[in-house]
Design goal:
TATA-Binding Protein, 4 helices, alpha+beta, elongated, 2 domains, 12 strands, ten-stranded antiparallel beta sheet
Amino acid sequence: MGVTIVFDLVITIENVVMIGTFSEGINLDIANQKLEDSKRNWQRFPGLAFKLKTSPATFLLFQSGKFVCTGTKTETKGKQAINQLLNILKTKDLVSNNCVFDCDVKNLVASVDIGGASIALEQFTREFESIYEPDRFPAAVYKSTEQNATFLVFLTGKLICSGIADEETLKQAIKDFYNQLVEKKAIEKILSPLS
């Protein structure tokens, strides 16, 4: 009978990406003039970037009223940030007082710390169809078709997972991936030096 080593998984949601639409379009030329610290580069991108001062949220705004909100760590905080932005847009007369929004979580980005472990990246790349170019980037990139998620896998036992919009599904995908790492012997215990 073999010995199974269980590692602690610490999963932290780092970023919630929300996509939505205001019920009215926004004149981005005027918005760029009225919103302090907004940024635009029409030759490269058709939207306007704007960061709230009172929140970590950053927005991409489009003429149609569509928007992307990124930078918050929960859906609730994302919706609060969108409400703050909507109030600013109303105050600056960029939309009417009747303007509302609708939005959904599009993507969650989570960091994962597999405490006390390291990933054998050579073994990992043999067992998993992944991209690993250590001279360009320190992590292997693995796209899981089963979970529809993308994992960045670091030697240190840290992972980044993205591509899933639901927190429970995200956590299950991470646990399933962890089990595959153990099963395919791509995860190793870090031994502490004797003092």
